[in-house]
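testing teh design pipeline on a random one, pls ignore if ur not involved
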């Protein structure tokens, strides 16, 4: 186990160091012009900051409602009430903000599985719902990218990144749609633990074949992205940046592109460069753009960390526990007594019981 972890750490370092070196070189290159960052922070208008925080919180609520919709489609009764789903979602946001590697996706699954002990297959099903929830992001992301391509002043180096993002998103959506399985047409009886995990993950993606639930989840995701777009625009006003809404859309897209691969917590530095450089085309000075990048990331992190810490304590979890997430073996593990409950759940899903 230790050698494997060591190789993983070296791999992450091998990926992160070149990017970090590039960011440091970029900041050093622009170093003489960065003295204005402090001045930009000194002139921040805090009422706009509060508005941006409120819009980010609204985005979190909308996205958690989308996940709740997916869970209700994939998970047989009893199901988690929305307050529990929001709590798990918030813990996941906190973990993603403070730990590398998107640990938060497993953290929110772990919070829910702790509340439903003894239900075999639940872990894998919830992992499937997380995947489906992420896949539904593709719709608002593609719409946002198209909006940016048609209306914003895009640097030439960013156009290829946006087109690649669209391609990856569409491919992910198609793969999830092909992998999804309606849980009415399969059984878990007599199959291996690995097959059980794969099947339950596909059950979690089953919402892809349920138009009403899928449309509802997509609607909530679109609402969440709209709130985040307005939060980005509002944060611009806090830093006395009066660029139009398409510029906010460009910032939001490039900020997410810069965090696709979490090389270190928050990819701090890389995010600021990705935000400041395109804003130069809108007449925003580089120091002000960098300051705005730090401010915007702090605003988003304040929501994830603040709300996440609140619910981390509520769930009786600690920061150290977030690093020890359940693995796939737990999805197939269980006692012989759980087999009958699994069969009952499958019959209930199929409408046979």
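output:
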């Amino acid at each position: 186990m230790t050698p494997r972890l060591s190789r993983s750490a070296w791999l992450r370092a091998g990926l992160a160091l070149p990017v970090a070196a590039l960011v440091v070189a970029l900041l050093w290159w622009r170093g003489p012009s960065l003295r204005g960052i402090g001045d930009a922070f000194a002139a921040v208008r805090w009422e706009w900051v509060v508005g941006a925080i409120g819009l980010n919180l609204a985005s979190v609520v909308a996205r958690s409602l989308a996940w709740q919709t997916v869970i209700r489609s994939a998970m047989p009764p009893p199901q988690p009430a929305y307050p529990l789903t929001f709590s798990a979602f918030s813990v996941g946001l906190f973990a993603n903000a403070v730990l590398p590697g998107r640990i938060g996706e497993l953290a929110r699954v772990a919070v829910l599985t702790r509340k439903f002990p003894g239900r075999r297959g639940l872990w894998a099903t919830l992992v499937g719902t997380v995947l489906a929830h992420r896949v539904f992001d593709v719709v608002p992301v593609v719409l946002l990218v198209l909006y940016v391509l048609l209306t914003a002043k895009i640097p030439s180096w960013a156009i290829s990144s946006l087109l690649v993002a669209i391609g990856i998103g569409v491919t992910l959506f198609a793969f999830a749609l092909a992998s999804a399985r309606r849980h009415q047409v399969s059984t878990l009886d007599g199959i291996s633990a690995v097959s059980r995990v794969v099947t339950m993950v596909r059950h979690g993606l089953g919402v892809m074949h349920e138009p009403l639930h899928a449309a509802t989840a997509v609607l909530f995701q679109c609402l969440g992205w709209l709130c985040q777009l307005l939060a980005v625009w509002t944060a611009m006003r806090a830093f006395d940046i009066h660029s139009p809404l398409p510029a906010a859309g460009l910032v939001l897209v490039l900020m997410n592109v810069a965090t696709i691969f979490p090389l270190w917590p928050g990819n701090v530095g890389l995010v600021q460069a990705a935000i400041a450089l395109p804003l130069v085309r809108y007449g925003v000075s580089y120091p002000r753009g960098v300051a705005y990048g730090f401010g915007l990331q702090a605003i988003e992190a304040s929501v994830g960390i603040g709300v996440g810490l609140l619910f981390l304590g509520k769930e009786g979890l600690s920061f150290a526990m977030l690093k020890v997430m359940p693995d796939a073996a737990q999805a197939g593990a269980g006692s012989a007594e759980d087999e009958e409950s699994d069969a009952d759940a499958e019959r209930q899903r199929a409408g046979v019981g």
